[in-house]
């Protein structure tokens, strides 16, 4: 799963308030060319939304974000998510996902947290909150000692269409997480075509760096 995720430079970070929006949202992402999604566990609708996407779009890489409690972790495994993420690094959560052979990407913001992640066998970490924590320059300096060890980062928080290329141009960055791709208001207003267009624009920006 890590190898598959490393092929996808943009991960949409989604907050779903109404589980009925799960399928049309996933369709909007797929229509734009994006087959990966992170549904955060911040709402009561998240478990059902994850289950619905898993059932209707089994080929989609389904991620669960903001996994911060044991109950949330169990729900994710029971649902069969492709990967999980968290804003921080909890060794118990990491081990739980590892015991169930499921990729987990915890959040880090300091050298000590990076080294803790490496000690747990992790090769992909979430840099969060990326903008507030010092931006691209901070990550460049923070990750410099660890790049040779093969660790990759997914900056999330403060990443947008205007600065995503700056993030993705960093060798240690494998992907960026973006909530702008489908905002809560756009989902509530069912602006599926707008979301599809935003996805296409983001993937086009990412493709420019690959050319």
Automatic annotation (TrEMBL):
Q: Which Pfam families match?
A: Aldolase
**Entry keyword Lyase:** yes
Which UniProt key words apply to this protein?
Carbohydrate metabolism, Lyase
Under InterPro entries, the record lists: Aldlse_KDPG_KHG, Aldolase_TIM, KDPG/KHG_AS_2
Metabolic or biological pathway: Carbohydrate acid metabolism
- Quaternary structure and interacting proteins, as annotated: Homotrimer.
- Know the name of this protein? Bifunctional 4-hydroxy-2-oxoglutarate aldolase/2-dehydro-3-deoxy-phosphogluconate aldolase
Which GO-annotated molecular functions does the record name?
(R,S)-4-hydroxy-2-oxoglutarate aldolase activity; 2-dehydro-3-deoxy-phosphogluconate aldolase activity
User: Which superkingdom heads the taxonomic lineage of this protein's source?
Assistant: Bacteria
Q: Which family does it belong to?
A: Belongs to the KHG/KDPG aldolase family.
Q: What class of enzyme is it?
A: lyase
Its Enzyme Commission number(s) read 4.1.2.14, 4.1.3.16
């Amino acid at each position: 799963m890590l190898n598959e995720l490393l092929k996808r430079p943009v991960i949409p970070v989604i907050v779903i308030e109404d589980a009925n929006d799960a399928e049309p949202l996933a369709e909007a992402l797929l229509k734009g060319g994006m087959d990966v999604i992170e549904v955060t566990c911040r709402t009561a609708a998240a478990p059902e939304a994850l289950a619905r996407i898993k059932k209707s779009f089994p080929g989609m890489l389904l991620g669960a974000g903001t996994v911060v409690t044991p109950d949330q972790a169990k729900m994710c495994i029971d649902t069969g998510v492709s990967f999980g993420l968290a804003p921080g690094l909890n060794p118990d959560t990491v081990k739980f996902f590892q015991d169930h052979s499921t990729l987990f990407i915890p959040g880090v913001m300091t050298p000590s947290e990076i080294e803790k992640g490496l000690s747990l066998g992790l090769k992909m970490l979430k840099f969060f909150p990326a903008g507030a924590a010092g931006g691209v320059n901070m990550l460049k300096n923070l990750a410099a000692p660890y790049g040779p060890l093969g660790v990759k980062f997914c900056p999330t928080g403060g990443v947008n269409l205007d600065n995503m290329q700056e993030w993705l141009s960093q060798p240690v960055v494998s992907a960026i997480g973006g909530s702008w791709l489908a905002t809560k208001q756009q989902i509530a207003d069912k602006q599926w075509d707008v979301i599809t267009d935003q996805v296409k624009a983001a993937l086009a920006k990412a493709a420019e760096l690959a050319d």
